[in-house]
Structures are given as C-alpha cells and as structure tokens.
C-alpha cells in the first residue's frame, strides 16, 4: 500500500466522509448523497470487470476495502455530509478566493483548541484507569500483551503463551508516524541501515486500520519476527525495530466511527490504546510544507485518480474539496471535519490538529519532529540527531556519509514531474487555506520555521 494512503474508495467521490453515529440520526438531517461526475465509473467498477488490467485494479480496490470497519462503506454510500441544495458554491475555479467566514471560523477554532490545550491538564490512560469502551476495544491486545515487559530487552518484549508453548514476542518501540509524502520512506530506508535497527515491513497500518482481534494482534507480532530472530542469532538484546506506518498520527477514521458522532470528534482514538500498551514509545514525525505535500500526494497515488493527472485536474479536485470542507465547517467543529475524508486529503496538512492530539497522550520529549526541507538539506546531521533521540549508538561521519549519500527513496516519477507545477490559482488557494494551520503549528512547537516562509 502506498505510503500513508487511505484505503482506496469504492464509493462515489464526495460521499466518502464517514460520520459515525446512529444512521437514523444521520438520515433525519434530510441529507442525500451528492452525484459527482465519477459516479458512473464507480457503478461500473464495483463488479468484477473482464479486462485483465481493470480486473487488477478491481482486486486492489477490494483488498483496500477490507481495511475499513464493517458497515462503513454502506453508511458512506447512503450519507453525504451536507445537502448540495442547502449551500451555494462559495469557491469558483476561476476566482481563487476562500470565503472569509470559513477562514475566520478556522482561526477562531484553532485559537480555542490552543487555549483548551494550554488550560487543561493532560489525561493519559494506563492499564489501571482505562475507560470501559477502550478496554473493550483493546481487549485482545491487553490479553495478549502484558503490562510489563522483559527488562533485559531494549524493545518491548514478552513471553507469548499459546496453547502448550511459549515464545518470545516483541513490539516496536519506535514509530515513524507521519506524514505521507514527507520523505518517510527515505528516512525509513536510511534508519534501518543502522546496525541496531532491524528492518521490518514498512507500513502495516495496524493501529489505524485493523480491528483489534486476537488474530490481528498475533499477525502484527509476526511483523517483528526479524527482530526476535536477530536477537536470538546475535545475542544482542539491545536491538530495536520501528513501525513506519505514515497513517499512525492522523488517520482517525475508525475512531470517529467508534467513539465520535456527526457533531463531535472522537472522544478517544487509537492513540489512547497505543499509549496504554506502549507508554515508553518514541515517535518520529516528518513535516513538509503542506501545499507541496498535497500536490506531491496527488501525483503519487495513481489509483485514486484513475490515471488522469494534470495541474488542471488537481485544481478542479482542490476546488471541489475546499467547497466540501467549507460546507462541513458550516455544521461541524474543525476537529470533526479534520477527521473526514474529502476528494483530496486536505486534512493531512492540518498538522497541528493531530500533533496536539498526540501531545495530550505522550510527553513532548518522546516526539521528535523535523521538516522534510531540513532532512533534504542535511540528512547526515538530521540522522545523527535521530540516533541520539532514539538513544542508539552514534555512527562515524564516514558511515553517515555512506548512508545518506545514497539516492533518495520514493521520489516523484519523471513522468509526473513533466506534468508541470501547481497552477498559480491552486497555489494561492492552498497558501491561504493552510496559513492559519502553519501559524498554529509554529505556536504549538514554539518555532517559526514551521511557518515555511522563504527566509526559513
């Protein structure tokens, strides 16, 4: 699966913003699905096609659909966030100006979120004080994974008891948790070249997109088999591994359906479960200038756009997504709209909304944040800092040079580069839209470089 990509839609574009809660309450709002221009394509692709190329695409869609919670697709197919006839189209493609009331609402709500975060004491859950709903959600995890781990291992390891046998099992204690199209693949590939970091599959997306059954827990543990094997073969119990699922920090779709409603963001998320299971985990976050990130993501995920990509198509989809987001903000809080999926993944660039949420669960010293631009400028320096953060042995300058001088991973394809840059109108819309989120992030992290001004 693509880095941090959403499960591939099999519903009409625009009707994919899942809002959890009772379906009768949803339908009582007298809303109806919007008919977007690709609905006919959707209707012809939900059954298995005969052409071999289309069949492979259909299989990928069906596989991606399996990541979604039961019933979510049915709900999304019957429900759209707002009735199209209730709101005028406030954003025109040929006049890239965002509604003043939308931007004012975003700024006001971000300020309220900041004040609320600064005012309230952080409540984190451990095994002793988990709310009942969270206990039920993570019941299989808490039954399989003990509260205390074996002290002789750096990684969170324990003895797994299955029927008549016992074996060593481990979980990752490092999460390269976000964000997609911010060079997470490149960082992952270079991190695993450290002798103390054992490579595993990069993106299981387990915490965000898998229901916590016993079978799925055991399957996730198998992702760390390389770690267990290498510790056994080498006798080195200080080895670590990492989960580099770039969806971990921001994808709350399942939590919204489980603990949220159409009017409120989720009360709890998978972050609460992860905090209760692995309170000592460390997190690495890569942040890229959000406008660039969105355009790069559009170019990268071919399946989502059915192979039709251009700056003009990007602009059309952008305007459509901004219209939908504006409609959402007319009815629901920002924290709720930030957890809905629109035609384009605008929400991923709302970094401060998600980072603040995780800072309620984990202390700042367990979260290392860097900009993609700084990583690209001096990867050796940034990699050295990451090794220090992870408390693993530093490498020599020669070793760092050998690792970081290799070509960058998962770069934009040449055929995508040849399509050209953003249209000026797209750039103007996105710069205006993301500006309050950048300002909020800079205040949250107390660092003006997250404004991404030209001089920084």
UniProtKB/TrEMBL annotation:
Domain (Sulfotransferase) ranges: 173-416
GO molecular function: N-acetylgalactosamine 4-sulfate 6-O-sulfotransferase activity
Gene Ontology biological process terms, A to Z: hexose biosynthetic process
Listed Gene3D superfamilies: P-loop containing nucleotide triphosphate hydrolases
Superkingdom per UniProt: Eukaryota
A Pfam short name: Sulfotransfer_1
InterPro entries: CS_Sulfotransferase, P-loop_NTPase, Sulfotransferase_dom
Protein name: Sulfotransferase domain-containing protein
Annotated organism of origin: Strongylocentrotus purpuratus (Purple sea urchin)
């Amino acid at each position: 699966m693509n880095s941090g990509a959403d499960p591939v839609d099999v519903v009409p574009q625009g009707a994919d913003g899942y809002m959890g809660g009772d379906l009768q309450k949803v339908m009582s709002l007298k809303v109806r699905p919007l008919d977007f221009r690709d609905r006919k394509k959707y209707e012809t692709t939900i059954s298995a096609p005969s052409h071999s190329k289309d069949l492979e695409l259909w299989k990928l869609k069906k596989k991606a659909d399996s990541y979604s919670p039961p019933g979510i697709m049915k709900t999304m197919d019957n429900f759209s966030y707002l009735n199209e006839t209730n709101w005028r189209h406030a954003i025109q493609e040929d006049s890239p100006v965002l509604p003043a009331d939308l931007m004012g609402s975003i700024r006001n709500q971000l300020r309220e979120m900041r004040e609320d975060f600064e005012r309230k004491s952080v409540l984190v859950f451990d095994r002793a004080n988990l709310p009942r709903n969270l206990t039920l959600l993570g019941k299989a995890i808490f039954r399989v994974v003990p509260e205390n781990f074996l002290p002789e291992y750096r990684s969170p390891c324990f003895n797994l008891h299955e029927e008549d046998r016992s074996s060593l099992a481990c979980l990752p204690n490092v999460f390269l948790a976000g964000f997609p199209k911010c060079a997470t693949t490149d960082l992952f590939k270079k991190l695993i070249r450290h002798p103390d970091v054992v490579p595993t599959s990069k993106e299981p997306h387990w915490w965000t997109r898998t229901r916590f059954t016993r079978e799925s827990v055991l399957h996730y543990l198998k992702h760390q088999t390389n770690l267990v094997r290498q510790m056994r073969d080498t006798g080195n119990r200080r080895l670590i591994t990492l989960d580099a699922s770039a969806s971990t920090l921001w994808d709350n779709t399942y939590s919204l359906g489980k603990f949220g409603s159409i009017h409120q963001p989720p009360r709890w998320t998978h972050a609460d479960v992860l905090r209760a299971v692995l309170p000592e985990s460390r997190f690495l976050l890569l942040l890229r200038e959000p406008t660039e990130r969105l355009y790069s993501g559009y170019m990268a995920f071919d399946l989502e756009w059915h192979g039709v990509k251009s700056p003009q198509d990007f602009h059309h989809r952008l305007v459509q997504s901004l219209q939908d987001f504006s409609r959402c903000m007319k009815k629901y809080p920002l924290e709720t709209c930030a957890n809905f999926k629109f035609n384009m993944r605008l929400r991923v660039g709302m970094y401060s909304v998600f980072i603040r949420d995780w800072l309620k669960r984990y202390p700042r010293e367990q979260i290392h944040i860097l900009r993609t631009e700084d990583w690209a400028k001096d990867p050796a320096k940034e990699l050295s800092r990451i090794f220090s953060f992870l408390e693993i042995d530093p490498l020599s300058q020669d070793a760092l040079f050998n690792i970081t001088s290799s070509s960058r991973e998962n770069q934009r394809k040449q055929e995508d580069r040849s399509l050209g840059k953003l249209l000026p109108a797209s750039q103007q819309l996105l710069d205006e839209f993301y500006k309050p989120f950048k300002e909020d992030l800079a205040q949250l992290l107390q660092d003006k470089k997250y404004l991404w001004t030209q001089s920084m």
